[in-house]
Structures are given as C-alpha cells and as structure tokens.
Design a protein that fits this description.
Layout (H helix, E strand, L loop, with lengths): L11 E2 L26 H10 L6 E4 L6 H8 L5 E6 L2 H23 L5 H9 L5 H14 L27 H13 L4 E5 L2 H8 L5 E5 L7 H4 L7 H10 L4 E6 L2 H9 L3 E8 L5 E8 L18
Parallel strand pairs: 1-7, 2-3, 2-5, 3-4, 5-6
Antiparallel strand pairs: 6-8, 7-8
Helix pairs in contact: 1-2, 3-5, 3-6, 4-5
C-alpha cells in the first residue's frame, strides 16, 4: 500500500449528524460496549435501499445484536443469522432463541440483586447453559460499562449512588427478552467464528452482511475474544458476492486498507456512553444510498 493512501481519500465524507439514541427502540438485553444503537437509522436506510426484505442478513460479530434484532423485528430482511464466539453471550442467545425466553425473563424478574448474590451467580456460571446465560446477563448489568472481558469489575457508585443496581431493570429486560422470543423463528444463531460463516457464504448473492468487529486497540479491553486479523477481514469482505456494511473506528491504517480494496468510506458522527462526540467509519463497496433521506418510519410488523 502506498503512502499516498495514508491520506483521507475523496471517498471519506465527514458530514453527518449525531443520532439521538433515545429515539431508537432498545431491543437488546445487553449493555454492549461498542453497541450500534446509534447507527440503527442508517441501518434501516441501508436495508431499505438494498431491498433486503427477500435476503438473509448475516452478522458475524453479533455481540448485543441490535442490528439483527432490529432487522428481524421490523421485517427489514427475510431471515437473520447471528454469529458470536463468546460463550457467555452465545449462551444468552441460545436460550432466548431456542424456547427459553420465558424462563430467562422470569429468572431475571425473580432475582434479588445484591453484590453477594451477583457474585454467587457468576461463580456458578459453568453449571449449565442456563446458568451461564443468566450469569452473563447479571455480569453485563453489574459490571462497569457492561464489559464482559476477563478482569472487569462491578460498578461501585453507579447512578445516584445505586451501585450495582444502577443498570438492573428487570421488567425492562423481561419485556425485551420476550419480544425477541416472539421473533425467534426469523433468527438463526451460530456460536462460532464469524470469519468461517462469511467464508462459507461468500458466493451467495442473496445474503447481506453487517460486519462490526472488535476494533483495534480498544477491543482487548472490552471483549473476551478481541483478536481479529483486520487485513484478512478486509480481504474477505472484498470477496463477498453479497452487499456488506462494515463499521470501524476512524483510523489512518483502516482508511489505507479501505483504499487498497477500493471501498467507499463515510465518516459518521456518534456519541459514546460518556456523551462525548466521536466519529466512526462506514465502509462498503457502494455507499451511494447514504445520499438519500429516510422518509419511511419504522414499524414492527409482528
């Protein structure tokens, strides 16, 4: 790659408004570091412009799954395949999508959250798939920033001095989990490697991919499985016959890779969990759809 490609190309568009996440339906039971709730308006726009209602959406790094859940609940695609490597996160999706939504929802509502009880649940996580799923939800809700990486710690003060109860909303979690259970027939879940699933489907033109990998540098602090060969991921994206939308932090080396594969890039504004304005990159083979305005309001059709 040449040094010239280190400079922002004409394909990088810096004009973007910050999305108010309060206007976006919160569908995931996770507080997910790196979640894409703020991107949902553009996801809807992308899927509608691509006439994806007859296609399958594959999300190879699903995590909290907000993109997959939105696509399934709003009938933006025909079918969704979520892929996740983390055993705990995978356990939650396996339980919810295989008939256990009511069980998990009731378990959450009936749980008396204290530091002692939370610690006991997490220590006993490996007793069964159910115990791992519940422990993952508890850990995600009581850890600082919802971080699930090894070594993460409980919230101390939290909002208004509520400590670990700051993000424990049992009735809200129950509602979200039961809503996911109602669309489970539209969602296929795979615990495994997102690379492998993309490679297995690369020749399909009826598939559309949302690719949101752990980012360089920050991924290690946030996720259990953070090591990704980003050059290989860009190369794989270039081979896909179906359309894809990839998100990354805005970094020179990532722009360089995008230029190398002749991808289009757009810088979009977002706010992190501390309400600080930042920017990320949307990357694809064609981002012309971003020039049109969304006029259709989203509605659940279930």
């Amino acid at each position: 790659m040449s040094k010239a490609n280190l400079l922002p190309s004409k394909k990088v568009d810096v004009n973007s408004k910050v999305v108010n996440v309060a206007t976006v339906p919160q569908r995931s039971p996770f507080r997910y570091a790196g979640g894409k709730t703020w991107l949902i308006p553009k996801i809807r726009q992308w899927l509608n412009e691509r006439e994806a209602s007859s296609k399958e959406l594959i999300e190879p790094f699903a995590g909290g799954g907000i993109v997959s859940l939105t696509a399934a609940c709003e009938n933006l695609v025909h079918r969704v395949t979520m892929v996740e490597k983390d055993e705990g996160v995978a356990a939650v999706w396996q339980i919810v999508l295989n008939g256990g939504a009511q069980w998990l929802a009731d378990k959450i509502v009936n749980f008396q959250l204290t530091p002692e009880n939370a610690k006991e649940v997490i220590e006993n996580a490996n007793e069964s798939l159910e115990s791992l799923a519940f422990a993952t939800i508890v850990k995600n809700r009581v850890n600082r920033g919802g971080i699930l990486a090894d070594g993460s710690s409980f919230v101390k003060k939290g909002e208004n001095g509520k400590g670990i109860r700051s993000r424990w909303y049992p009735e809200t979690l129950k509602k979200r989990i039961l809503a996911i259970g109602r669309v489970k027939d539209k969602i296929n879940f795979i615990q495994g490697d997102g690379f492998d699933v993309c490679q297995q489907n690369y020749s399909r033109e009826d598939v559309i991919y949302f690719i949101d990998p752990p980012y360089p540098k920050t991924g290690k602090r946030l996720y259990r499985y953070s090591e990704v060969n980003h050059q290989q991921l860009f190369a794989l994206a270039a081979r896909l016959k179906g359309d894809f939308l990839m998100t990354y932090n805005d970094a020179v080396e990532l722009r360089e890779m995008g230029n190398f594969y002749d991808f289009e890039m757009k810088q979009v504004a977002m706010k992190n969990t501390h309400h600080a304005k930042k920017s990320e990159l949307l990357i694809s083979k064609n981002l012309a759809w971003l020039s049109s305005e969304v006029t259709k309001k989203p509605t659940d059709k279930n």
